[in-house]
Amino acid sequence: MNKIITVILLSLICNTLYSQKLLTSWSQQNIENYTKEMYDDAQKLTASELLSKNLNDKSWSSVFLTLNASINNYKTDKNYLQSLANQLTNKTETKLEGTSRLIIWDRIINKDITFEGKGLVIDNDLYTVAGRANQILQNLTSKNFGNVTISSTEKELETLKINWINYLTDKNVEEIKLAEYKNAKIPEISSLKAVNALIISLQDNPIKEALTKKCLKNIYKLDELPKEKGSPASYCNPDTYTYAYLGMLFGYEKLDESKNAKWWLTFWNDNNKKLIWNSEKGIYEVQK
């Protein structure tokens, strides 16, 4: 367990140089169906074409291309930004394809996304037009007036839209204060929503099983997970990361094999409303 934690923490220290949203590791090479030709084509799109594209994107690679092209070409285009703000009340949802190593906690909880133990954490719900528009606006302006989640109401989206329009017309708008998890070892996994998603991800999932087998076969030429402790091949199973993350979050220094997927699910169902963050220890505790 200690070895696993050390590896994860070292990876995170390196990755924070690039993005606060990376969990363990991620690169554009992890995006499915993403090519240089697609990238080059996206860079040629007009602002109007990108706005239309954002309405119709159906895969994580397409969403990323829209975001990337927006950042590279329209960061200071006020008309483009205001048009994006007008999309913030559009709750149209698309089941995105090719979401390998994309981490949206709500979508892991409802099983739209399979957690792979590492990847890029996105706070906005990219499955909706509003979520994608908000993500682009945040990236283009480095401002945060709130996130679009799977449970955002029409009223909340309207308020968010007004805040963005006010900001883009040079009015003073206060940014939201992000939740702080003092002394957290990994802030990206420290919200209760993330804890819930991690526990859900431990449950049986045929997609997770297939990913594990593919990794074992392609990288280690193995047909099953090794029995020996500490084998690098164990990282083919996302649960190896997840158990380590949960151990950090609850202060368990050693891996307790009795705390399996079923145990964690029961623990969550019994205690999720009683969990409090201990800022001194940087862990969750059950309030007595």
Any overview of this molecule?
With 288 residues, the protein is mostly helical. The chain is built from twelve helices and five strands. It has helices spanning 2-15, 36-43, 47-56, 60-73, 78-85, 105-109, 129-141, 154-168, 192-201, 206-220, 238-250, 261-271, and strands at residues 22-23, 102-103, 119-121, 275-278, 283-286. Strands 1-3-2 form a three-stranded mixed beta sheet. Strands 4-5 form a two-stranded antiparallel sheet. Helix 6 links the parallel strand 2 (102-103) and strand 3. The radius of gyration is 20 Å and the shape is globular. Mean pLDDT is 92; it is low at 2-20.
Task: List the keywords.
288 residues, 5% strand, globular, disordered N terminus
Share of helical residues: 40-55%
Number of helices: 12
Oligomer: single chain
**What is the β-strand count?**
5
β-strand amount: 5-15%
| SS-derived structural category | mainly alpha
SSE arrangement, N to C: HEHHHHEHEHHHHHHEE
Q: How is the main sheet built?
A: 3 strands, mixed
What is the 3D shape? globular
Mean pLDDT, nearest integer? 92
Kindly report how far apart the N and C termini lie.
28 Å
Low-confidence stretches: 2-20
Count of separate structural domains: 2
Strand order of the largest sheet: 1-3-2
**Computed Rg:** 20 Å
What is this structure's SSE topology?
Elements: H1 2-15, E1 22-23, H2 36-43, H3 47-56, H4 60-73, H5 78-85, E2 102-103, H6 105-109, E3 119-121, H7 129-141, H8 154-168, H9 192-201, H10 206-220, H11 238-250, H12 261-271, E4 275-278, E5 283-286
Parallel strand pairs: 2-3
Antiparallel strand pairs: 1-3, 4-5
Helix pairs in contact: 2-4, 3-4, 4-7, 5-8, 9-11
